[in-house]
Specification:
The complex is a heterotrimer of chains A (177), B (648) and C (155). Helices cover 63% and strands 11% of the residues of chain B. Chain B has 648 residues and is an alpha+beta fold. Among the domains of chain B are: 165 residues, no CATH class; 109 residues; 102 residues, Tick-borne Encephalitis virus Glycoprotein, domain 1, CATH 2.60.98. In chain B, α10 packs antiparallel against α11 and α16 packs antiparallel against α18. Classes of the chains: A alpha/beta (177), B alpha+beta (648), C mainly alpha (155).
Chain lengths: 177, 648, 155
């Protein structure tokens, strides 16, 4: 290791840092992997906008798609809303339940959102944020796919599409109860 | 029409800057003056073109020209007049334009100042500056064009981020950018010195004032950012160790180290390699800062956007760092120290320690900022590194720096004798210990606060002692009062400017220590007419009121604040509802004081005004941060005055 | 009859005591809430703690902390609950274990290494007190010395 050659260690020392920063382009700091995958989904018991009750316990035995949204979530929740409703209509007779949970919202704005997209699946407000924290929600929209045994299997962050919903629901429906 | 004109100007600017840089290189290489003239004309042309861009953008803002996408996103018809002007730098594209404009002005100043005075360095300085300008103009042309056309033209714009509708918004980016871009000039001179092999002290002496001015504006920008955070964001704090805050703090730390270590090179012709490395590091960190803000690789409240702009900045940063450090390695032979240390107890080694601790702080901040990325790369697990980490690790470092700040200015060069040490430091050390003991007697138990206060007294005592001795000596040699006091400051303006800057740092340190240790807060829900007590103040909720402003709706609460001591004051914190924003923005109200501020944030409230949730804080010593900024201004201004000739 | 009275009184006392204990349990020290909240990261604001953030989400999270503490959970249990739901990321400072130890240790190690380097450099650059003749001064340096000496610069 010559003393003359050692000098080039100075510019070389910069390379690992640049490599780390380049790696940064492949990651999304806003996406946090969920520690809930594979674990039992947290129980909830809420009152829907229509007045009736909805709870996770009551849905045991069905595949559940739990969608967190808000009327102020522009544009993603608005982009995915038709797909969510389509998914519900396609799968409601196959033992799938779609439940929407509205977070940090005003009631009139939420009802307007529901009316605009003609949602026919149950939607409930989460007034004090208990359910959203129970599911580790850090933004909207987020969608959880829960299997028949009540375990969280997939989490999708961002606007849902028909293909993504179909893929996860088909996978869970194939599994034996 | 404006989008097309503006775009043409940016493209022309990029071409001019690039060709000017090449011309300057040829001029430097061959020594032929006409090539240099071409480069200079290019520099003038670039400045004209960027000014045209700014004029076009301002015109678009003022005439509500929503065919320009940038105008449509950042203003709407309700945006007040002055914010329509400051919206120019309110978002990504415009901030690059501002940066480029400042850089082009600095380039012109370099042309005027140095074309005759530094004929050997000048061509290379010019080419480096034009090269950097070319990069920023490239960014303006491809990934972040400010002149994109929006079709169809919307009837109204989206509007400025409401958090930016504030006086801090007018000054914070400007000060910060003046600081960042200011370091380009010493960097360019350093590169020029390396290229032509003149690695002596020249490049340092020439750029001394540039460095001080850039350092000052960076410090000012950081303080204004803290002020803006404090009075706008509604959390009652002034620094969150947010990645982008850190990115602006790091070059300031290395620039501070640089300011001190160049003094060693000027006196003793040592640390040449180190100083060159420091200025490269400082400039690199300013680029890293803009990269971090604009690339989105580390999430931050400041992050403008994601996209290809990150790739541009990282590529340029890589080019700059690898290129300049390679230049440095190539010229290593010419960077031998020309003298040696006489003693470990000397100003030279104190400055070395100063540099060590400043760089340690820089490294800590850098490592903590990128650690989440590292953790993800290695483990695939995301972690957060926040305020608790930075505070814990940096506090001992900053306390040591406070101590060194007292020792450095007075300890002797070369070798400090025991007598020199005793004469300069015995009384201040005693004063510091006594101060800490007194505070302890008054009930202050926090060890860190005691240490900080003791050190502040120690450093202040060294400054006062030195000044008093100097004044006395001049009086004894027959000078009048005015000459002995004011005259001394002017005549040795570098020294005393530095002292006053140190005093400014002390004031800020006091503010930080006091606010961290002694501020209190509480959160509670009040019925109308109900009160809460905190820190000697009673706050009573009197009612709510709704109103409509030009571009937002607002609900304001009225609170009566009584202090046992003297005054009554009404505070009106509110919540602003902007149609384009998802959640309401808090409008904080506060009552600032010399020693303490009463700070009130309105949270949830009942529609009928019967109930309100508030966060109440009594923040102590925060005003000292802003006061420190004023002292820094005086010190920096004194330090850059032209050298005074002693009257005959 | 007397026994009935005693039983009723005893029941009343026990009930009262239970009520009191419930009331005490419900009185959670705001400072503890603040302490726990200061260690958690506000999920919607990037760098602020749940204690500091004015956002609605942080508000709700503080409420949850309050309720859990009131129900008898310890601060560690409340923290563990959030980590269970969000992952390590929710802690504002990484736990001092495993890979994360690096972030706590490396800065101090770096400082230590730096100190060693500085000491070595100082030793290498130092010379014996009996010095050789100083190098010839160039005119610029000589002028500066003359100027500084005439200004009576202190050492």
């Amino acid at each position: 290791m010559t003393l003359r050659g050692l000098r080039w260690a100075i510019p070389a020392a910069v390379l690992p840092v640049l490599a780390l920063l380049t790696y940064g382009f492949w990651t999304d700091p806003k996406e946090i992997p969920s520690p809930l995958l594979g674990r039992p989904a947290a129980a909830f018991s809420l009152a829907t906008f229509d007045g009736g009750p909805i709870s996770l316990e009551g849905l045991r035995g069905k595949v559940v798609m739990l969608n967190f949204w808000a009327s102020w979530c522009v544009p993603a929740c608005y982009d995915e809303a038709p797909a969510v409703e389509r998914t519900w209509r396609a799968y409601k007779n196959q033992g799938v339940m779609v439940v929407g949970i509205d977070i940090q919202d005003k009631e009139e704005a939420a009802r307007q959102f529901l009316a605009r997209f003609g949602h026919t699946f149950p939607n409930a407000p989460d007034p004090r944020g208990r359910v959203s924290v129970d599911y580790g929600v850090y933004g909207v929209p987020e969608t959880f796919f829960i299997d028949r045994n009540g375990r969280v299997r997939f989490k999708h962050v961002g606007a849902l599409t028909d293909e993504i919903a179909r893929r996860h629901l088909d996978a869970l429906l194939k599994e034996p109860a | 029409m404006i989008p097309e004109l503006g775009y043409a100007a940016t493209v022309a600017g990029f071409v001019l800057a690039l060709s000017g840089a090449v011309a300057a290189v040829v001029g430097g290489w061959t020594g032929r003056a006409e090539w240099l003239r071409t480069g200079e004309r290019a520099a003038i042309g670039v400045w004209v073109l960027i000014t045209v861009c700014i004029a076009l953008m301002l015109y678009a803002f003022l005439t509500f020209d929503f065919s320009v996408r940038y105008v449509a996103i950042n203003t709407n018809r309700g945006t007040p007049f002055y914010y329509r002007i400051t919206a120019l730098w309110g978002a990504l594209e415009g901030s690059i334009v501002l940066w480029s404009w400042m850089l082009s002005i600095y380039t012109l100043i370099v042309v005027v100042q140095y074309r005759r005075r530094q004929p050997e360095l000048y061509p290379w300085v010019l080419s480096v500056m034009l090269g950097i300008l070319a990069f920023f103009l490239l960014v303006m042309t491809i990934p972040a064009p400010p002149f994109e056309r929006l079709t169809p033209i919307p009837p109204d714009g989206r509007g400025l981020n409401p958090l930016l509708e504030d006086s801090g918004m007018i000054t914070h980016p400007v000060a910060l950018y003046l600081g960042f871009t200011g370091f380009t000039v010493p960097f360019a001179f350093a590169m020029a010195a390396l290229i032509i092999g003149r690695t002596g002290e020249e490049w340092i002496t020439i750029t001394r004032r540039w460095t001080i001015i850039a350092w000052y504006f960076l410090a000012l920008g950081l303080l204004i950012g803290g002020w803006w955070s404090y009075h706008v964001l509604g959390w009652g704090g002034y620094w969150a160790w947010d990645p982008v805050e850190n990115a602006a703090f790091m070059p300031w730390l290395t620039a501070t180290a640089f300011l001190h270590s160049v003094m060693v090179q000027e006196r003793r012709r040592m640390l040449k390699l180190w100083n060159l490395s420091l200025i490269i590091l400082t400039f690199g960190l300013t680029l890293f800062g803009t990269f971090l803000t604009r690339s989105g690789i580390i999430g931050s409240v400041h992050s403008f956007t994601q996209g290809s702009i990150g790739v541009f900045f990282l590529s340029f940063l890589s080019l700059v760092l690898l290129g300049s450090f390679s230049l440095l390695a190539w010229r290593m032979d010419r960077l031998r120290a020309e003298s040696q240390l006489d003693s470990v107890v000397s100003r030279e080694s104190t400055f070395l320690l100063n540099n060590l601790f400043l760089l340690a702080a820089t490294f800590t901040v850098f490592f903590g900022t990128v650690f989440p990325l590292l953790s993800e790369a290695v483990r695939g697990v995301k972690v957060s590194v926040g305020a608790p980490f930075f505070n814990l690790v940096n506090i001992p470092v900053f306390l040591t720096l406070l101590f060194l700040m007292g020792v450095g200015p007075l300890i002797a060069w070369r070798r400090a004798s025991a007598q020199n040490l005793k004469r300069n430091f015995l009384k201040p050390v005693l004063a510091g210990i006594v101060a800490a003991a007194v505070l302890r007697l008054f009930g202050v138990a926090n060890v860190l606060v005691l240490a900080a206060m003791g050190l502040v007294i120690f450093v202040s005592a060294t400054i006062v002692l030195d000044y008093a001795r100097a004044v006395r000596a001049r009086r004894r040699s027959g000078e009048g009062w005015s000459a002995a006091t004011w005259g001394l400051l002017l005549r040795q303006n570098r020294r005393y400017g530095g002292f006053i800057v140190h005093l400014g740092v002390l004031v800020v340190a006091l503010g930080v220590a006091g606010s961290q240790a002694w501020s209190v807060q509480t959160e509670t829900t009040l019925e109308k007419g109900q009160s809460v007590e905190l820190g000697g103040y009673r706050v009573r909720f009197d009612g709510l009121e709704a109103s409509e402003e030009s571009n937002h709706g607002k609900v304001t609460g009225t609170f009566s604040v009584t202090s046992g001591r003297h005054w009554d004051v009404m505070l009106h914190p509110g919540r602003k509802f902007y149609p384009q924003e998802q959640t309401p923005i808090a409008a904080v109200d506060y009552r600032l004081g010399f020693i303490e501020d009463v700070y009130l944030v309105l949270g949830d409230f009942a529609r009928d005004g019967s109930q309100a949730t508030i966060k109440l804080q009594v923040n102590r010593m925060v005003s000292w941060l802003w006061l420190g900024g004023f002292v820094l201004t005086i010190g920096a201004a004194l330090a850059i005055l032209p050298d005074h000739r002693k009257p005959a | 009859m007397r026994r009935l009275l005693e039983a009723a009184a005893l029941t009343a006392v026990v009930l009262a005591a239970l009520q009191g204990r419930a009331a005490v349990a419900a009185q959670v020290d705001e400072r503890v809430v603040h302490e726990v909240a200061a260690q958690l990261r506000c999920v919607v604001c990037q760098s602020l703690s749940v204690a500091d953030s004015p956002s609605e989400t942080a508000n709700q999270m503080r409420q949850i902390i309050r309720e859990r503490l009131a129900a008898g959970e310890s601060p560690e249990q409340v923290r563990a609950y959030f980590v269970e739901k969000y992952g390590e990321w929710i802690l504002l400072s990484p736990p001092k274990s495993g890979f994360n130890l690096l972030v706590w240790v490396v800065p101090f190690v770096g400082l230590g290494v730096g100190l060693v380097v500085v000491v070595l450099a100082l030793r290498r650059w130092s010379r014996k007190p009996a010095t050789a003749a100083s190098p010839a001064l160039d005119p610029v340096m000589r002028e500066r010395i003359r100027r500084e000496m005439s200004e009576g610069d202190k050492t």
